[in-house]
Specification:
The structure is a single chain. By secondary structure, the protein is α/β, with parallel strands linked by helices. It has one domain: 3-Layer(aba) Sandwich (Alkaline Phosphatase, subunit A). The chain contains 15 helices and 16 strands. The strands form four sheets. It has a ten-stranded mixed sheet with strand order 5-6-4-3-9-1-10-15-2-16, sandwiched between helices. It has a two-stranded antiparallel sheet with strand order 7-8. Helix 2 crosses helix 14, helix 11 runs parallel beside helix 12 and helix 13 runs antiparallel to helix 14. The longest helix is centred in the first third of the chain and has 25 residues. The radius of gyration is 21 Å and the shape is globular.
């Protein structure tokens, strides 16, 4: 008779075998260009968050779906604002000293716990960090910018819009493009791929550009005004009434919104089926009272991990990802899509361990759904022409696991005061803000055999990547390599 532990171990083993088998083909194959690029983002996620979620669900440190991907690396995430903090206010894109953005001798050559916690690291890493807008701009454009900028040059010059990877691939390759997020689609991370603005807070202008000008083939996200629909569009702080009404009237788009008592995942997937069959674009608008999707909720059942949705009216990230892939996969030229689990960041701002575990599970499920989608036989999408990257835009909260908790076990978490407390000491937090820690990158598929040559080019003696290099890695994988707009100081190496 199989015990629960045996069943769990077998399922994890089979998952690993499946991924390794496909990964081997991707590494040995990968001879073709990446015709399909999927960038999956855990906003505000650090490796300690990954470990905590993995322990809760599997009782192991690195058992999440994306932990099995064959290419793995560490990424520096600093922006121009971080750089100026340490340089005394100066920044020259033609003479960059990367160690003023992130110093491995102070922060570590590997993120903790893969590397040691260096003396003074906490004070250094929590002093100044990127925000989501400039972080997403870095990999979307290959350019460093200021805190708060959406695909816009630092210093906010007129005419400073930077062309994004989605726009480059649409123009050069005819790719379909899309963005998916569990937070409003006009928020920094999704917006930086398909819009341009001097401020991430100009939500109405960003929404108007995305849906009225750029018009991606897929836009799925939060920002839904309660009670609204195409029959009764309403304005929200994230989406102007005119933009909402215009997309509802646009014959190119199939529109689906959150509705009371309706399963959001089913409604979205049905809309994706119809859009794909009719050759339409897809706009899905969901969310809750705070604008975001409600997070999955894990329970403290030691030995029995259990997670429940708070509402069925929003899709899961896995469902939203599959809906996007269904529509984008119809384009014979290929596609680029950025998919974000944005609520990991909000959980970490609030030092909310329980919510962090639930949101990381949402990301884990989405990664597995994407892997399964690519693995489907008898279609034109496989690992020889598809690139999947899973990463984070920055870390948040300086969380540390102080004790090893088993599957289904959550730390004691109090709710008094403005922030949760952890009186038994299983977990600690050092910040409620972003941190400048290295984040992880996991990848599989077409082009990854070229990724390792980027390692250490900005940081000699390490294998660290810079987040701007992700732009070049993806463009090169697509068969459209581009020269960097940035230059290191004389005598330093450059990609």
């Amino acid at each position: 008779m199989k015990t629960a532990r045996t069943v769990k171990a077998v399922s994890i083993f089979l998952l690993g075998v499946s991924l390794v088998a496909h990964a081997t083909g991707a590494v040995a194959g990968g001879r073709h260009e990446a015709k399909h690029i999927i960038l999956l983002i855990g906003d505000g996620m650090h490796i300690e968050h990954e470990v905590a979620a993995s322990r809760y669900f599997y009782g192991e440190d690195f058992a999440l779906s994306f932990h099995k991907l064959p290419y793995q690396a560490d990424v520096a995430t600093w922006d121009v604002t971080t750089y100026k903090h340490w340089s005394g206010g100066s920044y020259d894109p033609n003479a960059i000293d990367p160690r003023l953005g992130y110093d491995p001798d102070r922060g570590g050559k590997r993120p903790f716990p893969l590397g040691p916690e260096l003396p003074g690291a906490q004070a250094y890493l929590t002093a100044k960090a990127t925000d989501s807008a400039s972080a997403a701009t870095a990999w979307a454009t290959g350019y460093k910018t200021d805190d708060g900028n959406i695909a816009w040059l630092p210093g906010d010059p007129e005419g400073g819009a930077l062309k994004t990877i989605a726009e480059w691939l649409r123009a050069k390759k005819g790719f379909a493009i899309g963005v998916v997020s569990t937070v409003p689609f006009t928020h920094a991370t999704p917006a930086a791929h398909v819009s341009h603005n001097k401020s991430r807070n100009n939500y109405h202008a960003i929404g108007a550009e995305i849906l009225g000008s750029v018009k991606p083939e897929v836009v799925i996200g939060a920002g839904y005004p309660a009670g609204s629909s195409c029959l009764q569009p309403m304005e929200s702080s994230y989406l102007a009434l005119k933009t909402y009404a215009d997309v509802c009237a646009d014959p190119a788009y199939k529109v689906v919104t959150r509705q009371t008592g309706i399963d959001g995942g089913t409604a979205l997937l049905q809309a994706a089926q119809e859009a794909a069959a009719q050759g339409l674009k897809l706009f899905g608008l969901f969310g809750g009272t705070a604008g975001h999707f409600e997070s999955l909720k894990p329970y403290d059942f030691p030995g029995t991990p259990a997670v429940k949705p708070v509402s069925m009216e929003n899709p899961t990230l896995a469902e939203a990802s599959l809906a996007a892939l269904k529509v984008l996969g119809q384009d014979p030229d290929g596609f680029f899509v950025a998919i974000e689990q944005g609520d990991i960041d909000w959980a970490n701002h609030a030092n909310d361990f329980q919510r962090m575990v639930g949101t990381t599970k949402d990301l884990h499920d989405a990664a597995q759904a994407i892997i399964d989608f690519v693995n489907q036989p008898d279609d034109e999408i496989d690992w020889d022409n598809t690139l999947l990257i899973v990463t984070s835009d920055h870390s948040n909260s300086y969380m540390r696991n102080q004790r090893v908790l088993g599957a289904g076990d959550l730390p004691k978490q109090t709710t008094t005061g403005s922030l949760p407390g952890y009186p038994d000491g299983e977990v600690t937090y050092g910040s409620t803000n972003h941190t400048n820690e290295l984040v992880r990158l996991y990848a599989m598929g077409a082009g990854i055999q070229k990724f390792s040559r980027y390692e250490g080019k900005w940081y000699r003696g390490t294998r660290i990547l810079d987040n701007t290099q992700l732009f070049h890695m993806m463009m090169e994988a697509s068969g459209e390599p581009m020269p960097s707009l940035l230059k290191l100081k004389q005598g330093m190496r450059m990609n």
